[in-house]
Structure formats: C-alpha cells, structure tokens
Amino acid sequence: MRAARYGEAAEILNGCQEWPEHVRDNAIALKADALGRGGSYVAALEWLTGVADMVTTPAGKFGYEIALCRAFTNVRDLDSARAHAATAEKFVDSDPHGALTLAYQRSRLAWFAQEFDPHNLDVAASVTHPDPTAAMCALMIRAWHHAGLGDLKSQIADLRLALAMIDLETEDALDVGVLATISHALARVAFETSDAVALADVRARFEQIEWSEGVRVERFQTLRIFGWDSFMCGRPGPAQWSFKEARQCAPSTAWEVMAHLDRAFVARIARNEPWALEELAEAVRLSHAVQWESTFNEERLALLTLATLTAPSNAARAQRYAATFAALGTDSVQATFAISHADRRARAFARYAQGQIDAVLGHLAAAERAFRDAYEIFVSIDYQFQAAMTSIALAEVTGEPSWREKAAAHAAHYPNSPLAQLPKTGAGLEPAMPATLSPLQKQVAHALAGGAEVGDLSRSLSRSIYTIERQIAAVYQAFGVKTRSEFLASARALGMA
What pTM was computed for the model? Predict the structure, then answer.
C-alpha cells in the first residue's frame, strides 16, 4: 500500500475475511482502501457490503465504518457517508487516535459537499494527527478547502508544508500515493500562479519518488506541468524532454491525446504551425479510440483543448468536443484533480473553448461573453497563464487595446516565454488572414493550409464538393493567388502551414 502498488495489495489481502480475528478486521478495511485508491470506488463499496457481518471487534467496527464513510464520499453519496461517520463515532474510543481519524474523514466529506472552511474544528483537529502520513493527508484536505474559497496562496502554503513533512518519516513509512498526489497538486497550482519557489520544491522531490503503477497518472500530470513550466520560462530543450517523457508514460490513450495536445498548443504559441498541425492530427486520430464517457479523471480536459485547437479549421467538430465535455460533466472526477466537482476552473476552461468556437463562426458577441466569463474566473483565482491566453483572445474579438495591456501584464509573470512577446506584437495565437473571408472560408483556409483535400473538406464541413470548390476559389482570390502551391507558399509566409 505504501508503495502505491494497490493491485498487488488487494491480491495479497484476498481471503482476509477468513483470517484470525486479531488481523482480520484491519485487513478488511485495508483491502477496501486498496480497491478505492486503485481507482475502483464501487468495488470498495461492494467489498465492504459483502463482509459486513464479519467485523466483530470495536476497533474493527470503527475502521469498517471509517472505510464506508470514505468509500461513500468517493462516490458522492454524501448522506450515506455522514451516516457512517456518525456510526463510527460510537466506536471512536477503541482507536487511540480515533477522534483525529474521524475528524479527517469529516473534513474531507465537508469539502466534497462544498462546505469550504479551512478553519473548522474537524480540519483543525485532523492536522494535529501524530502520524505524519495522516497529517499530510489532513493538510492536503485543508489546502483544498482553501482552493474552494479561491485562496490559492494558502493552498500552496499547506501543500508545501505537507511536502516538507516527508523528512519526518522513515523510508519504510513513506506513502508514495500521498506524496505523488501532493506533488501533482502543488505543481499544478504553482505553475498556473507562477510560483517558482513552490514548483522548485516539487522538482526537488520528483526524483525521490518511486513511481509505481498506482501513481502513473500523477507522474504523467507532473511531467506535463514541468514541460509547460520549462517552456514558459524560455527553456525549450528541457520542455521537450519533459513532454516526451510524459507522452512515453501516458497511462491511457486519453492521456496520450492530452500529451499530443500539449505539444500542439506549445507549437502554436511558438508559431511553429507545421509542428502544431502534426501533433494535433495525431491527437485527433487517437481521440477516436477513446470512450470518453468511461473516463473519470482530468483527461476529459483533452476534449476542451481539442475544441480550442480544431476550431479554426472545423468549428463543427470543435463544438462536438465541447458538447461532449459538457454532457459528461465533472461530478465523477477524482477529488484531487483540477476539474473536480467543487472547482470553478472546469467552467472557465469550457467557456474559453466555447469562445474560440464562437469566434471562428463569427459570433463575436457570444465569443466575448464566453471569454469574459473565463477571464473573470482565471483572474479571481490568480491563474496568470490562462488569464493571459484569455486576454489575448478578448483583444482579438473586441479590438480593444486594454485587453492587449492586460495580456501583457499577465504574460509578464513568464518573462522569457514566447507568450510574453505576443501582446507586444499585436498578434494573437491565430495567424492573420484577409478580412474579407467569411467564417466558413477561414475554416477552409486553415484546413487547406493543414493539408486537407477537397473531399476531406466536403466530409468534415458537411458541404458539397461544388460548394467547397467555390469556397476555395474565394480563399484564393482573397489571398491573391491562383493555385494550391501559391496558396501554400502564402500560408507558410503567414505562419499558417
């Protein structure tokens, strides 16, 4: 369990319900924990329900009720979780640290219920637990209470405090799953808020973690963040190594889609459109093999990035990606991920993607509303990178110089990155095209620059061959060219192809 090899732990515990009483009750609760931390919350509940009559000692009953409280919390059945927390209280004296353990579960339950209060009695008690791992978990939950209130500086402070507690543990007692979760959470919020000191703490710990199967997602996510951080700090070489390593250890096809989208987005910011198109094409290809409704982690965000990056060449497909994300929702996403049910960031990401789609379609008023919604959230939680990107988008759809100034202010937090240069040049992420083009013609131009043929455009844009040929003729006229080769040369000059 401490090595985050949860499948092996569950296998070792098979048949534990038949073990002698002095170890049986603890083993039953431990197996539920192994199943839950391995990602199968439903299996944990099934297991606990099936062995209900086998737990006999007071201490065992306390551990059993705590396990049920945790499992019901994980599946968002909060009423049942509260009921089992109340039952656990009847046996709390059977465990030397029972009151603190119960306080932790209640503070966790309150966070799931969006009852954010980092200073309530349960939170205050749980962080005093004498076991370092338990105290680290309690600090992590307190950090998420801060995040729920939009106080990311306090969130970072608690996560850094939890990370520093590793020195208090012996090597044998180190819980890799807890360490990996804290590292990923801290890396994410530190990057988005441009906290270089906190991110350096994570980098210093990263190589000390024995990254086992149970923490593959956390490793992948942390490597992605390292890649973005290096890129935004003007270190393209280390950025590519991190992105490459992340892609190689992607836990699933959905995560692999995310890895290619990272590289596509970075390439677009760096004005390397051929590379961006290549990575985006691979991401789109892989996305067809993903059953998105079966995902339950942050990989769903790939749908929004797909929507953002495909919008210029195929707004209809982009809308499908965005609508799929909206239909899936985020209620089932694991609690420690950035788009969890209690986090406004998911809405901000979704509104940004919708703004990109509306802008391509020429619905500028709708695009402005969507971008403003996203911007207000990103600013309120101090997400400098996302605020800069959204400011640039608002500058493009409104033409207002004030948004260019805001973009420059946010981008200044990453002074050596390509992003910091964009507001100064007056250019956005999308290459400029002739103003006479209609929204459909702009999509055709982008797709042509990406290598699409007439048949591809007919199918993807749901237009007849005749209509597409007319649109291509209009595109050529706007660009002042007569042939495909001349258009591609012009597109390359604009950074489109």
Answer: 0.84
